[in-house]
Specification:
Blueprint (H helix, E strand, L loop, with lengths): L1 H19 L35 H7 L3 E7 L4 E7 L5 H11 L10 E5 L2 E2 L16 E6 L22 H6 L33 E3 L19 E3 L9 H7 L5 H5 L2 H14 L3 H14 L6 H11 L8
Length: 310
């Protein structure tokens, strides 16, 4: 039995090793037809008929030469010239100039009009509705004038300024001599300019002398006072908050104060839940002035635990 188990384990190991080996096929390998994919039947679809080739007559007609009449008003001239529909307008202008160089200007100075519409140089003649015997108006543009050498007129020489003229000439204006930039407080601003607006300033009260202080006495603090024009009276609440001797925080931070408040609320309400609810309202309103440590001390003293132990 042990020999059988050993042979079985060897066979499994051998087969696993063979399964991990890559499969390499020869260059002339062909897959068996049984393993190849089968063709899917295709439904018969009617195909359109093959278009007939274009007739040679139509192509020859497109390449046929037509005769056009070119009429010019200034000077009054008329030309009959055979052109091809595949010629560009620019090439037609060049042909006209080549045939009549003395009477017609160059192609850049010609303009062809068909029924009052100008023909573009880059377009073909067949792009316009032109047929045999049509008349095309020819307008000659005047060539641009030739640029000759520019003659520069001589500039008169300025004489050097004499000493007398330098003494009599007024000094250059000083940009810092205006009344706006002057340090004189009595200087007036120019008409139309902005007037100086007084900015409220902070005035320091005179510093008390420390020479007459007794031994152990603290020096007085320097207070900052605003000008009388910009001073605003403070509200009583803000004045109490700015006062350093305020006892509001010292009072509400004591757990004994909240213990007395809880006893007072329990004496006013019939149910204990109503008294605790009023106590929580007072405590939530004062949380902005208390720290987490102070709130925990108040909870321990009164025995009222809020939501999540806070």
């Amino acid at each position: 039995m042990a020999d059988f188990q050993a042979e079985l384990a060897f066979a499994k190991t051998y087969l696993n090793t063979l399964g991990r080996q890559p499969v390499v096929f020869a260059d002339d390998y062909h897959q068996s037809p049984d393993n190849s994919l089968k063709r899917v039947p295709i439904l018969p679809i009617p195909l359109p008929p093959v278009p007939e080739p274009k007739s040679v007559k139509g192509a020859a007609a497109a390449l046929a030469v037509i005769s056009l009449t070119f009429k010019s008003l200034k000077p009054a001239l008329t030309y009959t010239h055979p052109v091809s529909p595949t010629d560009t307008i620019l090439s037609i202008k060049e042909q006209l100039h080549t045939l009549h160089p003395e009477e017609l200007p160059t192609a850049e100075n010609q303009r062809l009009l068909l029924k009052g519409k100008a023909l573009a140089d880059q377009k073909l003649l067949k792009e316009y509705t032109v047929k045999e015997g049509d008349t095309i108006n020819l307008v000659s543009k005047a060539p641009p004038p030739a640029k000759g050498p520019q003659v520069v007129a001589p500039q008169p020489l300025h004489a050097a300024p004499s000493d007398s003229s330098m003494l009599s000439s007024p000094p250059p204006p000083n940009p810092f001599a205006s009344s706006a930039g002057s340090l004189d407080p009595n200087a007036k601003a120019p008409s139309g300019g902005k007037k100086h607006q007084r900015i409220p300033s902070v005035v320091l009260s005179p510093s008390p002398s420390n020479e007459n202080l007794a031994q152990g006495e603290k020096p007085k603090e320097i207070l900052l006072d605003l000008d009388a024009e910009s001073s605003v009276p403070l509200s009583p609440v803000l004045r109490d908050e700015l006062t350093l001797s305020s006892s509001y925080h010292d009072t509400i931070s004591k757990p004994e104060f909240w213990q007395r408040l809880l006893e007072f609320l329990e004496s006013q309400f019939q149910g204990e839940s109503d008294a605790h609810l009023a106590f929580e309202d007072f405590l939530r309103a004062s949380k902005g002035s208390l720290t987490v440590n102070e709130i925990a001390k108040i909870r321990d003293k009164t025995g009222v635990v809020g939501m999540a132990g806070t």
